[in-house]
Structure formats: structure tokens, C-alpha cells
């Protein structure tokens, strides 16, 4: 029995990756939930919006790298994020002007908006593939590890190492900053308050003189920023491949629904619930258990509940459980 | 222009496009487009039943299509008796145990007192899961170890391949029942997310459960309902007849095989189309449309909306399953990695919307037209890019442009969908 090593192994393989992944999902779910609250539809194009924003950031990063600009230990991509956000903001505002606004004026059923967003998804997906192709892209540079497994072992004398990658720390720090800024914006500024008012009760908000088009524009800009940041962080932490971004829609939606659609706090909670369940259920617990249990109880198998290929099944099952027992989500989102 | 004339003209256009392909490109590709167009039309009919008739938004078509493909393997391939002996019973036993524990959990939830039923259900699920894994895993290992290069799976029932088409429908219907039970009756977007999830899970199962259909090792050489080309080429009578038509034996045999498939697929399409039309105009169809147009009013009239939704959801998914089985039979192989949501879910949606949601003939038309576009956009884009890059010197930009032609289709489909939704939201053949 060696609880300290068990704890380190748990931290290394479960806790740290899940926190990073959870932050990425939370950012994605926040954007989805904002669109849902203000524009009142589920945006299926969100994964591809993330992919497009990341694509522009990647190209900008390559540009910076080629002229020799770097951030030292940090990835150069951080410098390029504003470019990505600006481009994505212009793109989604243009899409809204050309596509979504027409249907908003007609007050069509939400499901029509979802179908429209599928059309937008095709176009964004096609654009990404046209410009960058469907393959993996690597754009991470800078220091790889904040603490490498070997340094950690040397430092503590434990037999298990705790590796913390720069991108993981970066993800969590950025996510905290972004979420803090967003909540400050929503709760303290005039525009933020008008957004919340519009989300709560459209008619009352209109009566009190809030300009709906302005609220929608601000929402899209925030969504563009959230999508690009989440996409870049995911790409730095794991890998950039347009198709995986498309597939991210499922856990992101699951996170938003589990938290309660329309509730920003719920989106964050949902992101972490999904991320921790996904990592915990697909991780082979043998290593941790060998340390944690007394010798006669040590497991012989891998102790993996589900193979990693079924990670989508995890978000799906959580989603189904929440839908069955608490359709409004953990934080009482909208149910209609 | 009356609707009948419009319908006739548009279908004539499809015929011209396909025959044109035959004349300009080759009859083989024309028949290929025709056959896959027939399959797509069946899928579009299934989706149209759900969306057009009942207003249900299903984005898990890929999953139901893939289940149809699985049904072909499970029905028509010969059983691998050694693998069955090695671990077949354990696998079946494990699955039965898993199903039993879920049933027991549901029963407990319904019957046990509220106070402790939560803990009881959790205990049953967790205990059941470990029991399931304990019985199931050794069976899987034993089956997958047997002759992994050739089989490594349990095989199927060895029945005629045509039987697998209704089997595909049944399999898809089962999955649809499960998903409909959980997500119907909630808001429309939830059904969308739930179906999206189940489709990804079906594909994950197909890719990973090697004992079932060999996973990513693919099943090839599935039995066919039509003769093999090579047998035809070795048949002197056939060669003679081909020669009398002025064709060499190789071309004639491939064309003849494809033509026979076309006849089979057309028969299924016509059957389903007739049934769909009959049901649409029956009292049942009128009730479904009433529910779609005003759920509250229909409920007030005493209609069980959730039950009717479940019914039509299962029916539509079953049709998608049949189409999936037809497609896998046509391919002669089950390749799980080829199931892409953009191709098998969202493209079908484009077909239904463009064709005209709520109109069965419209769905069939959309199936043919969009499939034709999907196949032909690539050569068209190639020609366009070649034209643009003609004057350019060789370089990275030219290479990149030429490479990216293959991705033009997604863009085109998105534009087509948005343009139709904006300017003709009821589709080419609107519902009457």
C-alpha cells in the first residue's frame, strides 16, 4: 500500500487531464448556452466555428513563427489568438447578417434554426478543409512541460511522476480568466445586463428599450472569442484536426444540457462533470489501485471500465440520465 | 405550372442527368449513380416520414444506416462454428446478463419504495456491469483469438442475403425504440442531440467490437443476391449475347450486374414509396400531420402524441435501416470507417429539405438530385479549378488549389441547403 504514489498517479492520469479537458468543454458549452439563451436555438455549427477560429490562429502562428516572433516558454499561438478572434467575429457576424437574421425576423421555430445552422456547419467545415485540409496540424511550440515526470520524481523521491504540461496550465489559467471576465461582463456592465434581461424575457427587454440586434451582435462577438479560445486551447493541448472539432459538438452539448441550457454557471459545471466522467470511466485504473490497495486485493486486469473509443458513450449516458431525471439540467435551465 | 407537371419535369431532369452521365462519362458510372440514388431515396423517405409527417428532428441517420449494414453481416455470412464453440455462449450469456440487470434496475425503480430505490438501482447497475464484464470479456477474447486474420468474429446466420434487408429494418427499429423512449416528449433539440449521440455510439461499437463484425478489419466478400461478374464472363451464352449487342464481356457483365441491382433496389423503393403514400393519406397520416401542425390541439382531441411520435420515429428509422442494409449489400463489404456523419446524416437532410419536406415524391427527387450533385461536384470543381489555374505557373498555390477540389462538395451542399431554405423553404416539390 502506498497512498502517496496512488495519489500522484491519480493526479497525473486523471485529475490534471480532466481539469484541462473540462475547461475546454466549459468554454465551448458557455458559448453554446449563450447562443441558446439569446438566439434561442442549438447551434450545430459550433464545433466548426471552433475549428475555423483555430485554423486562422494556426495560420497567424505560422506567420509569426516565420518572422521569428515567439513568446519564449509559452506557445506563440497565444499571440495569434486575437487575430483568430477578430476573423471569427467578422465571420459569424457576417453569417448572422446573411443567414440567421432573416429567420429571426420571421420568428421561425427553433428547429428550423437548427437546420439552418447545419447548412452553416457544412460551409464552415468546407472552408476549413479548403484552406487547411482535413489533416492533423501541429502548431504548439515553447516549453513542453512545466514539471516533467522525471523532475517530479527527482524532487519528491516518489516512484510515480506527475507531469504537468504547459498547455494544461495555460488552459486552466486562460479558462479562469475568460470565465471571470465573462461573468463580470454579464453581471456588472450595462450591455451584459441587457443581454441577461433579453435572455430572461424578450418582450420585457424590448419594452424597456433594449436594442435586440445589438444584443445579438455582442453575443456573436463573445461566442467568436469563446470558440476561438476553446479551439486553440484544445488544439494546443491535444491535436488540431477539423473532424475532431466537429465531434466535440456532442460532449459540448451534453455539458450545456447537463448544466441546464441557458445557464452560464451550469455550462461550466456541466463541462467538468462530462470531462471527469469521460476520463475516469475510460482510464485503466490498475496503476492507481496497485498502489492504493493492500497486496492481496491488487487487481490483475486493467480495471478499465470502458475502452477509450467509447468516450462519446459516456457523455451520452450522462446526458440520457439527466434528461430522464432532471430535464432542465443541474442548474435549472430553460425547459421549453 | 401544376404540381403534377412540375413533378414530371423534375423527374425527367433526373433521368436526363443520369442518362447524360451515361453518354458523356460511362454507363458504369451512370448505373452507379442510379443505384446509390435509389438507396439515398429510400433513406430520404425514412427521414421524410419522421420530419415531413411528424416534425421529428433526427440527426442520427448514420447510426440506423450502419445498423442496417451490420444486419447484412449478421444475417448472410456463414457462422464461424469454431468461434461459437470457443466463446459464443459466454458472449450471449454476458449480453443477456447485462440486459437482465438493466431490466431489473428499471423494475426496481418503478416498484421499490422511494426511500431507497436510488441506492438499490445504483447497486444493481454497478453489480450488473461487473458481472457482465466478468462473463463477457473472456468470451470476446476467445472469439477474437480464433483465426483473427480471416474471421475473429462469430459470423452470421448464413441466411439468404435478401433476408438481411428486413433484418436491417428490425435492428434499426430496436435502436429507435430505445432512443425514442428516452428522448421523445422532451424538447425537439434534445432528440437531436440524443440521436447524434446514439449514431456515434453505433459507429464506435462497429469499430471496436471485433467479435461482432470484425471492427476496422472490415468484412469483405459479403454474399450477393445477383450473379458474379466472373461467372458471367465464363458463361459462353452470356458472352455470345453480349457480343450480339456489340459489347465486350467484361463491360457487359458489370453493366448487367449493376442493372440487376437497380431492378432490386427499384422494387424496394417503389414498395416503400407506395406504402408511405398510402399511410400519408390514411386517417393515421392525417392524424400525424394534425399532431405536427398543432400538438396541443391534437392532444386536446385525445391523441396520445408521445406514443404516435414513438411509432413514426421507429418506422422512419426502420426504413433507414433497410436502406443501410441495401447499401452494404450493394458494396459487398462492411467498412465501419466509411460512416461519416456529414455523408450519412446531414447529406440526407439536405436531400429531404431540397426535395420538399412532407412530400414523399419530393424526398425521392431530393435523394436522386443531391446524390447526383454530390458525385458530380468533384469533376465539375476539378474542371473549374483547372480553368482558373491554367494561366498560373507551377507553385504551392496551384498545388493547394488543385488539392482542395475534393473538399468543394461540403461547401456546395451547405450553399445549396441555405439557398433552398431561404428562397424556397418548402423545397422543390412542396407539400400539398
From TrEMBL, chain A:
Subcellular localization is given as: Cell membrane
Q: Which UniProt keywords apply?
A: Amino-acid transport, Cell inner membrane, Cell membrane, Membrane, Transmembrane, Transmembrane helix, Transport
Q: Which GO terms describe its molecular function?
A: L-isoleucine transmembrane transporter activity; L-leucine transmembrane transporter activity; L-phenylalanine transmembrane transporter activity; L-valine transmembrane transporter activity
Q: Name one GO biological process term.
A: L-isoleucine import across plasma membrane
**Similarity annotation:** Belongs to the binding-protein-dependent transport system permease family. LivHM subfamily.
- Cellular component terms (Gene Ontology): plasma membrane
List where the protein spans the membrane.
20-39, 51-71, 77-96, 108-127, 162-186, 215-236, 305-325
Q: What is the official name of this protein in its record? A: Amino acid/amide ABC transporter membrane protein 1, HAAT family (TC 3.A.1.4.-)
Membrane topology listed for this record: Multi-pass membrane protein
Organism of this sequence: Thalassococcus halodurans
Q: Which Pfam families match?
A: BPD_transp_2
TrEMBL record, chain B:
Q: What is the lineage of its organism?
A: Bacteria, Pseudomonadati, Pseudomonadota, Alphaproteobacteria, Rhodobacterales
Cellular component (GO) terms are: plasma membrane
* Any one GO molecular function term: branched-chain amino acid transmembrane transporter activity
Give the coiled coil ranges.
none
Among InterPro entries, the record links this protein to:
ABC_transp_permease, LivM-like
State the protein's name: Amino acid/amide ABC transporter membrane protein 2, HAAT family (TC 3.A.1.4.-)
Organism's domain of life? Bacteria
State if Transmembrane is listed as a keyword.
yes
Q: Which organism is it from?
A: Thalassococcus halodurans
Amino acid at each position: 500500500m502506498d497512498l502517496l504514489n496512488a495519489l500522484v498517479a491519480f493526479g497525473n492520469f486523471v485529475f490534471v487531464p480532466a481539469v484541462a479537458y473540462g475547461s475546454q468543454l466549459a468554454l465551448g458549452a458557455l458559448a453554446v448556452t449563450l447562443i441558446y439563451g439569446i438566439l434561442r436555438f442549438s447551434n450545430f455549427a459550433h464545433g466548426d466555428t471552433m475549428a475555423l477560429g483555430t485554423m486562422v490562429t494556426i495560420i497567424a502562428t505560422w506567420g509569426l513563427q516565420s518572422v521569428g516572433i515567439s513568446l519564449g516558454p509559452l506557445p506563440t499561438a497565444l499571440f495569434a489568438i486575437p487575430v483568430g478572434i477578430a476573423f471569427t467575429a467578422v465571420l459569424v457576424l457576417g453569417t448572422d447578417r446573411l443567414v440567421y437574421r432573416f429567420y429571426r425576423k420571421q420568428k421561425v421555430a427553433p428547429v428550423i434554426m437548427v437546420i439552418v445552422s447545419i447548412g452553416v456547419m457544412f460551409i464552415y467545415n468546407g472552408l476549413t478543409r479548403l484552406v487547411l485540409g482535413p489533416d492533423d496540424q501541429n502548431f504548439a511550440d515553447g516549453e513542453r512541460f512545466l514539471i516533467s515526470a522525471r523532475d517530479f520524481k527527482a524532487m519528491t523521491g516518489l516512484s510515480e511522476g506527475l507531469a504537468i504540461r504547459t498547455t494544461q496550465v495555460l488552459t486552466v489559467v486562460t479558462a479562469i480568466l475568460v470565465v471571470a471576465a465573462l461573468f463580470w461582463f454579464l453581471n456588472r456592465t450595462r450591455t451584459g445586463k441587457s443581454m441577461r434581461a433579453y435572455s430572461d424575457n424578450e418582450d420585457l427587454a424590448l419594452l424597456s428599450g433594449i436594442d435586440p440586434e445589438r444584443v445579438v451582435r455582442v453575443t456573436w462577438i463573445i461566442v467568436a472569442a469563446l470558440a476561438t479560445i476553446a479551439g486553440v486551447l484544445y488544439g494546443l493541448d491535444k491535436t488540431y484536426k477539423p473532424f475532431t472539432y466537429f465531434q466535440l459538438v456532442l460532449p459540448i452539448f451534453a455539458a450545456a444540457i447537463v448544466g441546464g441550457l441557458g445557464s452560464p454557471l451550469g455550462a461550466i459545471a456541466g463541462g467538468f462533470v462530462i470531462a471527469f466522467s469521460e476520463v475516469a470511466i475510460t482510464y485503466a485504473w490498475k496503476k492507481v489501485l496497485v498502489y492504493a490497495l493492500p497486496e492481496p486485493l491488487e487487481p490483475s486486469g486493467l480495471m478499465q471500465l470502458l475502452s477509450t473509443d467509447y468516450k462519446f458513450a459516456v457523455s451520452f449516458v450522462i446526458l440520457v440520465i439527466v434528461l430522464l431525471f432532471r430535464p432542465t439540467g443541474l442548474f435549472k435551465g430553460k425547459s421549453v | 405550372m401544376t404540381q403534377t407537371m412540375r413533378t414530371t419535369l423534375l423527374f425527367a431532369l433526373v433521368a436526363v442527368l443520369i442518362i447524360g452521365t451515361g453518354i458523356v462519362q460511362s454507363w458504369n458510372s451512370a448505373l452507379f449513380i442510379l443505384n446509390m440514388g435509389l438507396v439515398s431515396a429510400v433513406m430520404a423517405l425514412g427521414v421524410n416520414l419522421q420530419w415531413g409527417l411528424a416534425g421529428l428532428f433526427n440527426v442520427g441517420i448514420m447510426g440506423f444506416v450502419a445498423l442496417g449494414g451490420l444486419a447484412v453481416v449478421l444475417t448472410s455470412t456463414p457462422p464461424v462454428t469454431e468461434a461459437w464453440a470457443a466463446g459464443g455462449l459466454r458472449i450471449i450469456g454476458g449480453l443477456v446478463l447485462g440486459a437482465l440487470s438493466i431490466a431489473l434496475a428499471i423494475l426496481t425503480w418503478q416498484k421499490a419504495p422511494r426511500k431507497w430505490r436510488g441506492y438499490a438501482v445504483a447497486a444493481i447497475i454497478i453489480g450488473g456491469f461487473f458481472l457482465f464484464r466478468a462473463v463477457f470479456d473472456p468470451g470476446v477474447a476467445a472469439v477474437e483469438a480464433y483465426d483473427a486474420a480471416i474471421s475473429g468474429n462469430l459470423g452470421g446466420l448464413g441466411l439468404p442475403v435478401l433476408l438481411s434487408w428486413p433484418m436491417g429494418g428490425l435492428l434499426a427499429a430496436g435502436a429507435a425504440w430505445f432512443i425514442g423512449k428516452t428522448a421523445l416528449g422532451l424538447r425537439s433539440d434534445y432528440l437531436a442531440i440524443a440521436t447524434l449521440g446514439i449514431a456515434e455510439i453505433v459507429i464506435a461499437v462497429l469499430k471496436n467490437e471485433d467479435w461482432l463484425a470484425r471492427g476496422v478489419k472490415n468484412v469483405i466478400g459479403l454474399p450477393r443476391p445477383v450473379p458474379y461478374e466472373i461467372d458471367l464472363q465464363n458463361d459462353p451464352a452470356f458472352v455470345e449475347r453480349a457480343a450480339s449487342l456489340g459489347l465486350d464481356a467484361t463491360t457487359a457483365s458489370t453493366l448487367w450486374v449493376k442493372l440487376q441491382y437497380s431492378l432490386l433496389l427499384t422494387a424496394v423503393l417503389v414498395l416503400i414509396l407506395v406504402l408511405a403514400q398510402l399511410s400519408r393519406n390514411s386517417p393515421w397520416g392525417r392524424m400525424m400531420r394534425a399532431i405536427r401542425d398543432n400538438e396541443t390541439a391534437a392532444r386536446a382531441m385525445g391523441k396520445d402524441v408521445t406514443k404516435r411520435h414513438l411509432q413514426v420515429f421507429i418506422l422512419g428509422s426502420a426504413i433507414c435501416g433497410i436502406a443501410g442494409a441495401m447499401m452494404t449489400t450493394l458494396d459487398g463489404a462492411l467498412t465501419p470507417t466509411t460512416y461519416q456523419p456529414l455523408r450519412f446524416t446531414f447529406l440526407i437532410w439536405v436531400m429531404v429539405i431540397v426535395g420538399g419536406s412532407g412530400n414523399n415524391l419530393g424526398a425521392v427527387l431530393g435523394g436522386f438530385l443531391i446524390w447526383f450533385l454530390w458525385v458530380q461536384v468533384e469533376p465539375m470543381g476539378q474542371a473549374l479549378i483547372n480553368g482558373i489555374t491554367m494561366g498560373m505557373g507551377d507553385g504551392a498555390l496551384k498545388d493547394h488549389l488543385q488539392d482542395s477540389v475534393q473538399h468543394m462538395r461540403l461547401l456546395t451542399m451547405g450553399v445549396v441547403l441555405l439557398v433552398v431554405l431561404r428562397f424556397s423553404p418548402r423545397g422543390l416539390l412542396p407539400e400539398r
